[in-house]
Amino acid sequence: SKWQEWYKENNILPGKSQEEVEEDEKQLFAQISEDRAGLAFDLYDKVTCDISGPKSENIPELTTFEALYKEFEDFLPDTLVENLRRCGFKRPTPVQKFSLPAALTGRDIMCCAQTGTGKTAAFLVPILSSMIQHKKATGALTQPYEGACKPDTVVISPTRELCLQIYDEARKMCHKTPHRCVRIYGQEPVKVQIQELAKGGDLCIATPGRLWDFVDSGVVD
């Protein structure tokens, strides 16, 4: 693409500079309060959680995020743990209590819970844990990215609003890692998104329509 040609001519790499990382930290975590105070954890504790599946009775119940970090220290990269602490995660919601331990040990899971009950972190934490430990990061390249954007993981969102919400959370968890998070959705100029996708991406948050357009045109593979 013309953007990749320009990046190559100017030796612009996919990764962020130290100044950009520092600016990100100010913006991403500026509005986060202690213990994610807006969540009614005492009410959450009264919510029942039904679990089914082979050997589901062996899935441990998560009590605190600090307990998670200790129990799964071999699965959770230090950078991800620090980002979760920056986000103020301390007490898990009902859906997180069981889904995080199950997913971090490699089990396939399907969760159903109301809006605002912590599902985004429930799937992003295991995804990024695996990516950071095992996948080559686009942001670590020492030369400009070439070719179609080939994300390791794609999260499909039914709406633009949810896409942006997930993207914002993903950016926080990807902070100070070389993994690039990109977003694809309608109602934003195509050229703006192509400019970002030309640098590659590891985690893609997308709505179906615009994503299909980019796949069909070869922008995303």
From TrEMBL:
Xref: InterPro entries: DEAD/DEAH_box_helicase_dom, DEAD_box_RNA_helicase, Helicase_ATP-bd, P-loop_NTPase, RNA_helicase_DEAD_Q_motif
Motif annotated as Q motif, chain positions: 69-97
Top-level taxon of origin: Eukaryota
Keyword tags: ATP-binding, Helicase, Hydrolase, Nucleotide-binding
One Gene Ontology term, aspect cellular component: cytosol
Pfam family, one: DEAD
Segments forming domain Helicase ATP-binding: 100-221
Gene3D superfamilies (UniProt xref): P-loop containing nucleotide triphosphate hydrolases
Single GO MF descriptor: hydrolase activity
Start and end residues of each DEAD-box RNA helicase Q domain: 69-97
Name of this chain's protein: RNA helicase
Originating species: Alexandrium andersonii
Phylogenetic classification of the source organism: Eukaryota, Sar, Alveolata, Dinophyceae, Gonyaulacales
